[in-house]
Amino acid sequence: MNVGLLNYWVVIFLMMVGFYIVMSSRNLIKKMVGLSLFQTSVFILYITMGKITGGTAPILAQPGTIYSNPLPHVLILTAIVVGVATTALGMGLIVRIKESYGTIEEDDIQTMDREQ
Amino acid sequence: MFAEHLPILQIVVPLVSAPVCVLLRRREWSWGFALLISWFCFGMSALLLQRVLQTGTVIYYVGNWAPPWGIEYRIDAVNAFVVFLGALIGSVVLLYAPRSVAAELPGVRANLFYTSLLLCMTGLMGMAITGDVFNLFVFLEISALSSYAMIALGRDRRALTASYNYLLMGTVGATFYVIGVGLLYMVTGTLNMVDLAIRLEPVLMTRTVLAAFAFLTVGISLKLALFPLHLWLPNAYAHAPSVVTAFIAATATKVAIYVFLRFFYGIFGTHYTFEVLHLDMVLVPLGLTGVIVASLVAVYQTNIKRMLAYSSVAQVGYMMIGVGLVSVTGLTATLVHMFNHALMKGALFLAMGCIVLRVGACELEDLRGIGKRMPITMAAFVAGGLSLIGIPLTVGFISKWYLVLAALQRGWWPVAVLILLGSLIAVVYIWRVVEVAYFHEPTGKTAEATEAPLSMLVPTWMLVGATLYFGMSSTFTSGVARRGAEVLMAGLAP
Q1: Is A90–B167 a contact, with Cβ atoms under 8 angstroms apart?
Q2: Looking at CB atoms within 10 Å, which of A39, A112, B174, B425 has the fewest?
Q3: Minimal CA separation from A86 to chain B, in Å
Q4: In the predicted model, is pLDDT for residue A1 greater than 60?
Q5: ipTM of this model?
Q6: CB B335 within 8 A of CB B328
Q7: pLDDT, mean over chain B
């Protein structure tokens, strides 16, 4: 099945949605959701660029077989680990922010900081 | 044997030591171990720099896999200098750390803190040493994640929000970087820097490369805090623990500037970056605006750490002006200022750490007459401040001299005038501290303050001494910087 550039359009859509959420949302958890979406779109970008139509996995390929490039997939495994670590750390920070401020709304936090 | 594997040991030793450090539960042991490792790294980086200066570029294949398949560590005068800088600051800051950490982070397990510091150092040195663009991303995230964790340890709860915002912007910057690298991989099929530079040449005019260029510019500029992408920086520096601020302020932005240089001078090449796309027409105005605006904002800060943070944004502006002047002199100015600024900002933040230890605050109004109670610490602050202004006999003068020279060589005298104006504004914000510290009687919090302990004064004065020494004898720093500048101007493609 030939999907043309569909994947790339999906990547751009997800990337922009994620980025918009990071910038516009005032809730710290929602920002993390946006950030994860933004990072995930890049994973799809990498995986898409490695795929060749009709290509198989490069496992002991006979000479002449068409196979997809495995390197972008490997790279993205690393990027996924980084993404998980970032999300975990971000969530950890949100927990501590909730403990010390009692809220995770950015507007409330800013008002509290200004009063201090 | 040892000398041959120096490039990889530089990274592997601190990386493997970090988990070992977790196991050392006693405060003194974990500190001693981290200190030992950092000085060992410093020794290795000095050897590496010496070797690069003697024999030229050092090339190392990780796991003996030849590039472009394997990861290549490629060390020339530029990154040897940056690695040396990172290791130097790391070892001095660790020497300073124990008293400050015990006082500022009482509830924190020291072994975990020193582990994060070692990881951050590994990440920064790894970013500088590697010749593979994806490997660089991994190191970038190692250093970034550990610095978010360390910034969040600040005593004030605002450290948490500062760290969170840094995490958001840092991740966006790093993701932009990965998008750029992905797009470059799409058209070239390689991640090795030299190979990229060669293979990009015929396809530079494609839209994919143009998009990659844009993503990389914005992504790296976010990491190096180029005005107006600096918004994460002031709060992160102001609320982090003193030791962390000193380490990150002195190294993190410098390494990001190195990455910027490597990409736009090395991989894309000066012709494409500056003659076809005219990136200098963006960098110089933004750099100048950064210098003037951030310096003016610094004048109005009441928290001294925040003031110094805004001053850092201004200093990044100076460095980016040097990048945008596209000449050997301009790049020499940038490289020499990277080193010099690390010394003086390190010294200033370490002096602030001494004050925080004894007074417990770094608000300007709490420091009345501190110069009479802590004369040695404040003398270090004043020496660092003079260097920030650019008084002759300090390192700041050397950097500004090269920068003004480069601006005049290009015939842009208004740029030179604005650079000097920036120095004049620095006089104002440093003077505000000096006035409060020396021309008021000690009252309130400063009344009972005593001089900081020797274990903190010695490292502070090591950096101050270096700012004075390299200010009077700049043959070493400017010599290395000039060689680095020549390497950068030549580009990576043979």
Answers
A1: yes
A2: A112
A3: 7
A4: no
A5: 0.94
A6: no
A7: 91
Q: How far is A44 from chain B (nearest CA, A)?
A: 11
Q: State yes or no: cis peptide before B68, omega within 30 of 0.
A: yes
Residue pLDDT, tens place only, B55-76: 888 899 988 888 888 899 999 9
Q: What angle do CA B187, B190, B192 make, to 5 degrees?
A: 135
- DSSP states of B104-151: H-TTS-HHHHHHHHHHHHHHHHHHHHB-BHHHHHHHHHHHHHHHHHHH
Beta bridge partners of B492: none
Pairing of strands B72-75, B58-61: antiparallel
* Residues whose CB is less than 8 angstroms from the CB of residue B418 and which lie 6 or more positions away in sequence, other chains included: B288, B291, B292
Q: How far is B140 from chain A (nearest CA, A)?
A: 10
Q: Tell me how far apart the alpha carbons of residues B40 and B34 are, in angstroms, rounded to a whole number.
A: 10
**Domains plus CATH for chain A?**
6-52+67-115 (1.10.287.3510)
Give the rounded distance of the alpha carbon of B60 from its chain centre. Answer: 25
- Whether residue A33 lies within 8 A of chain B, CB to CB, comes out as no
How many beta carbons lie within 10 A of that of residue B303, not counting itself?
A: 16
Cβ contact B152–A22 (<8 Å)? no
pLDDT tens, residue by residue, A80-98: 999 999 999 999 999 999 9
DSSP string over A1-70: ---TTHHHHHHHHHHHHHHHHHHH--BHHHHHHHHHHHHHHHHHHHHHHH--TT-B--SSPPTT--B--S
CB atoms within 10 A of CB B69: 13
Q: Using the beta-carbon criterion (under 8 Å), do A109 and B172 form an inter-chain contact? A: no
What number of CA atoms fall less than 13 Å from residue B242's CA on the CB side? Answer: 29
User: Can you tell me the distance from the alpha carbon of B460 to that of B350, in angstroms, rounded to the nearest whole number?
Assistant: 6
Of the candidates A46, A48, A41, A36, the one whose C-alpha atom is nearest the C-alpha of residue A13 is A41
Per-residue DSSP letter, B75:
E
